[in-house]
Amino acid sequence: MTPHTAMVLAAGLGTRMKPLTNDRPKALVTVGGRALIDHVLDRLIAAGVKRAVVNVHAFADLLEAHVARRTDIEIVISDERAQLMETGGGVRQARPLLGDAPIVVCNIDSVWDEPNGSAVARLCEGFDAARSGAKLMLAAMDQQLGYDGEGDFFMDEHGMLSFRDALPLTPWAYMGAQIIDPAVVDNEPLEPFSFTRVWRRLAGEGRLYGAPLGGYWMHVGDPEARVQAEARLSAGAPRP
């Protein structure tokens, strides 16, 4: 069953997206005529999510006003105006808003195709918080644009993940969506930190899993990637 609640990480500065973020947060940069955050919220709603916690920092008032216009999902704001908390710290600060049941956590710079139905719903299938602290959605390296790394994880036949680390490349890249037991951040200090710190601990415990996206991933992290994503969408690729 898809979780009731998701967290959307929308508080980033959008430095790599300049000049498009000179007057707006990255979450409000448009692709295919739709703001990045709306692409993500649409995918969450299609999977059955009813409530989204959205963190805000840069141009926070603009972003709050934008998401307040959504009537198809409950929006709760996690305010990071005073300090940007990064991906892990953002979830940790929002912890009182998230509840104790599993949640979906999404970045806002990903747009993806879903030729096999809701990828978020498939990610959530079979998630067992007693066995797995986090399950990450992974894109195949030959089915993506805008990501210039060499992959992030190896995945075994059971879906268990290990980090690439110093190895030259892997077939899988994290594409910005995961389901987690929110308790995995409970013992973290309330400070800015990357969620990678949590993943490494879970990997060491054998509690970090993955699932294939099963579609094409567009990582819209800079203006060039936005142009590429616009071209793909204009060519008739499936839209959210």
Break the fold down into its secondary structure elements and pairings.
Elements: E1 5-9, E2 30-31, E3 34-35, H1 36-47, E4 51-56, H2 60-68, E5 74-79, H3 86-93, H4 95-98, E6 103-107, E7 110-112, H5 119-124, E8 134-140, E9 144-145, E10 153-155, E11 161-163, E12 172-180, H6 196-204, E13 208-212, E14 217-219, H7 223-234
Parallel strand pairs: 1-4, 1-6, 4-5, 8-13, 9-14
Antiparallel strand pairs: 2-3, 6-12, 7-14, 8-12, 10-11
Structure write-up:
- Strands 5-4-1-6-12-8-13 form a 7-stranded mixed sheet, with helices on both faces.
- The radius of gyration is 17 Å and the shape is globular.
- The chain has one domain: Spore Coat Polysaccharide Biosynthesis Protein SpsA, Chain A (Alpha-Beta Complex).
- The chain has 240 residues and is of the alpha/beta class.
- It is built from 7 helices and 14 strands.
- The model has no long low-confidence stretch (mean pLDDT 96).
Q: What attributes does this structure have?
A:
Spore Coat Polysaccharide Biosynthesis Protein SpsA, Chain A; 240 residues; three-stranded mixed sheet; alpha/beta; seven-stranded mixed sheet
- State the helix count: 7
Query: What integer value in Å does the Rg equal?
Result: 17 Å
- CATH architectural grouping: Alpha-Beta Complex
Corresponding CATH superfamily: Spore Coat Polysaccharide Biosynthesis Protein SpsA, Chain A
Number of domains: 1
Structural class: alpha/beta
The termini sit apart by 21 Å
CATH class designation? Alpha Beta
Largest sheet: 7 strands, mixed
Stated plainly, the CATH topology is called Spore Coat Polysaccharide Biosynthesis Protein SpsA, Chain A
Beta fraction: 25-35%
Please estimate the helix content: 25-40%
Oligomer: single chain
Global mean pLDDT:
96
* Order of the strands making up the biggest sheet: 5-4-1-6-12-8-13
Outline: globular
Q: Low-confidence stretches at least 5 residues in length (pLDDT < 50)?
A: none
What is the N-to-C order of secondary-structure elements (H for helix, E for strand)?
EEEHEHEHHEEHEEEEEHEEH
Number of strands: 14
